[in-house]
Amino acid sequence: MRGATHAKWAACAVAVVLAATACGGSDSGGGGGGAGVVSSSWGDPQNPLEPANTNEVQGGKVLDMIFRGLKRYDPKTGEAKNMLAEKIETTDSQNFTITLKDGWKFSNDEPVTAQSFVDAWNYGADVRNKQNNSPFFSDIAGYADVHPASGEPKAKTMSGLVVKDAKTFTVALKNKFSTWPETLGYQAFSPLPKAFFTDHAGWLNKPIGNGPYTVDSYTKGTGMKLRTWDGYPGEDKAQNSGVDLKVYTDNNTAYTDLISGNLDLVDDVPAQQLKNVKNDLGDRYINQPALIIQTLTFPLYDPQWGKEGMENVRRGISMAINRDEITKQIFRETRTPAKDWTSPALGEKGGFSATLCGDACKYDPAAAKKLIQDAGGLPGGKVTLTSNVDTGSHRDWMDAVCNSINNAIGEGPVCTVNPIGTFADFRNQQSSFKLTGPFRSGWQADYPLIQNFLQPLYYTGASSNYGKFSNPEFDKLIDEANQESDATKAIGKFQDAEKILVTQMPSIPLWYQNGSAGYAERLSDVALNQFSVPVYNEIKVS
Amino acid sequence: MGRYVIRRLLQMIPVFIGSTFLIFFMVYALGDPVAALFGDKAPDPATAARIRRDLYLDRPLWQQYLHYMGQIFQGDFGTAFNGQPVTELMASAFPVTLRLTVVAIFFEIVIGITLGVVSGLRRGRSVDTTVLVLTLVVISVPTFVTGYLLQYLFGVKWGWVRPTVSPDAPFNQLILPGIVLALVSLAYVTRLSRTSIAENVKADYVRTAVAKGLPRRRVVTRHLLRNSLIPVVTFIGTDIGALMGGAIVTERIFNIHGVGYQLYQGILRNNSPTVVGFVTILVIVFLVANLLVDLLYAVLDPRIRYA
Amino acid sequence: MPEPEHPAYDPLQPGQGEAIAPTGQGGPMDLALDEAESLEKTLGDQPSGPREKARSLWSDAWRQLRRNPVFIISSLMILFLVVIAIWPQLIASGDPLQCDLSKSQQGSAPGHPFGYDTQGCDVYTRTVYGARASITVGVCATLGAALLGSVLGGLAGFFGGWGDALLSRVADIFFGIPVVLGGLVFLSVVTSTTVWPVVGFIVLLGWPQIARIGRGSVITAKQNDYVQAARALGAGNGRMLLRHVAPNAVAPVIVVATIALGTYIALEATLSFLGVGLRPPTVSWGIDISNAASQIRNAPHMLLWPAGALSLTVLAFIMLGDAVRDALDPKLR
After folding, report:
1. pTM for the complete prediction?
2. What is the pLDDT of residue A232?
3. Could you tell me the CATH number of the domain that includes residue A399?
4. Are A435 and A386 contacting, i.e. CB atoms less than 8 angstroms apart?
5. Considering only CB atoms, which chain B residues are within 8 Å of C219?
6. ipTM, two decimals
7. Where found in the cell (chain B) (predicted)?
8. Between vectors from CA B305 to CA B300 and to CA C4, what angle results, nearest 5°?
């Protein structure tokens, strides 16, 4: 009897082990990519890989490889250059006629036509398809019919989109929007092949696009193999024979694989390794500005922060933060102290200004203390910073900011942090206006325009205006800027609006976030674009 | 014994219902997941409302739960937010984690019990002290650090093993992660078997066995160890589930896409289908493991019987 | 419920009788050997059964303890830690919250023997001040989990039946709750800045393990012949459990509890990392260890000191646990 039990137990164990191994299958081998193939770190995209549903970098990486839109932002200058568009014409900044170039096709040989765009945009706007990026189409006339605020949509297509012929379509906007064509480089505006609509599940398993790469295989949660599409009609052909994206759940692990030769490219160097990067990689390390700014937003809906006179306290807090020391010690120069509310990746021409915020963003503990005291002190004598702590190293900089404020004011621990466990919880508290102290707000621009840094965040009632800032003068200047057809004048107006933020200080600019990447010796011509995504098609493999 | 096992298996039904409801309720209590799907941008209200409606999130809790259970009985465990069915996630995550757990348990048993026996037999000698010091190190240094250090030394510096595990996660690549995962439990197993051995080594049956002239080896393995194993077996039984669901840190360090990772992501994103599905399986694993442990009691100590 | 039966209620049960039969044939056969063991246990245990010393099992243990140097040393260490936890300013003059970012991660300097952490705070001061929260969390959570777990587990193992089944299944569900989920749900609604919610949460998660261990060990201990003998002599349940079963079943619980003490202090760090643990201005080893862990390649000294303090605490309690266990075990005297 006992012997039998032993045997049974052993048999069970063996069965379990076998079952476990059997599911494993063959070893796909590791190491860097094959000949001419770049292996690169990746994260699991949060949403299905539809262009209008992808709003984060990981999904964006793939879309940038397999899609080309009407325009494409130059990876170096950020300038929106025509890609599939032959020309985009308008006389009134409201009605546009778009003409496509000849010869473009999807990798399944279906030609890219005006209909490919119109169908894709209508799909993206339709509320029934639950696309995250649908608000990008909200400027187009007829958006409310396919995307009503509540209830069922009245139409399947937007009246503002009309196909003239295979290569031409017209777009009518709801309002004048002079820089609208510049927004068309965003991935949500990509064209879609018929297969997307006829075999949606099949398309999601193996997306088909019109970019320099085609998807060879896609295993959700594990990785994606992309191969160069030999028939790609565009100018920016891939300089390598493919890209293998491998999913990592921790960027430190990806970094370890990079320095041990198992991976070619890591596009997010972990904070704790920044000190060793020079040693490990030498000059194979990129650290450049991206279109991301981190700010601390004040809950102006709460009278104790929003009432008249508190702008000096807000200004004082801004001046109590030692941005230089924090970006140096905590972020090791992968953040740059903020000097305005935009990003240096825009360039001076695009509206970035290193002097706009001026003294209000400079560390001056004595002046800060005086400003705060003269304005009546912190509300209730204390201030609490809130952020989610499940991603990024938010806890570290929050502690550092608080220490900096406490040291400047010199009244003990008046500044405390309020870490929140999940981003979802943080976002819910933020969007229900429950927070009673300054909170983190990060902003990654969708396209390199100063408008995108200001209007969605500070315009009265704007979608991401979580602090409920409202200033009629600011709103007026933004409206004027949007109607201005001359680009330089428009940017000037936007900057005038931005100057109001200096005096009102609805949010404290903390720092600009850089994109960082490290790569193996066999790669060259590695660069990041403004969205801190590697420009894969230009990478050469030796 | 057959009747006993059947009774224990029947008990799984209320536990299954109870735990799914509890976990479902807990994820519900975490709050609304939809706003977080939109990243740093503000959610579009109409789209968010549509997503909520399709996910049944706009209903009261009990309706959500009934809907979910109804789906489960049709074999549909729901989908994660990236559109992947939860059953697919489980099919890819559980085999990998199961293998990792098997490796970890193997090391716990082999190394843990060996060290425990050796230090138990040589109480107070230098071997015992060394094992104690190692135990202290393992308890006070976080898994993150030991995992990272071992990965760096073996994987990068000396290049003996692959620093990360490939998606298929074959056993040979899981040795290092398995050791790292087993470390803290090793401390428990070692101390438990040491104490048990030390307690039983003076027992009269051991003295008799020795007096009878049995080889020392036989006395230790047959008489001493067998009578000392019950607390160790109990511990390992409770540990199986903990190793499977709690390997978040180890799985991250070695890039293993297993249960810990999926569960963690599910929790951070408040995705109830993922969390409830995975936890339910884990609870079943616990139930089975503890049933096996209870049955093993009878094997190890024949005086214990089940009717 | 169907939990273990008590085969020896009737001392003349066939099973026992057969076990006695092959005595002396200590041959190579498994069966014979095992049965020989049971016999030897039967014969060996009876004379030293606690009945004889029942007059003073616990006071005997106490007398034994006082003479044990291990006990004295560990008690002194614990006393020291408690004093530091209550009056940290006795050995540290600085302020643990006074930080200068420009000194981030610097090594030791005059007056700052352990160097600075990432925020530029003094590691020595923080290690000393961290004792209070960490020891409170560790000791209280361990005591809570050990008491709750061993009482419930012990009763379940001793009586078996429906109570055991119910308790074991409830424990199974508790095992299934992921720490991350439980922490986020239970602790994010708490706004208190004290250590008590964290202690309560750890007890909630920790008791099932100790209950399982205690239950298993009681199930074994109650099979012992001296327990059966006591029952035969008419001892009540309470008396049997306290006098005869508990002292013989307590060893594994002590072992697990002393190690758990260390892991609970570390668990507090995990909770802090998730944003639901102890909050500043509370200083704890757990928080400092988790902050230092990611910087191990840059500033190992940040990890060394708080982790060392944690080791010392665990060592003291492991030694204490060992001494107490030895004192309770009559065979080792």
Report:
1. 0.83
2. 93
3. 3.10.105.10
4. yes
5. 230, 297, 304
6. 0.84
7. Cell membrane
8. 110
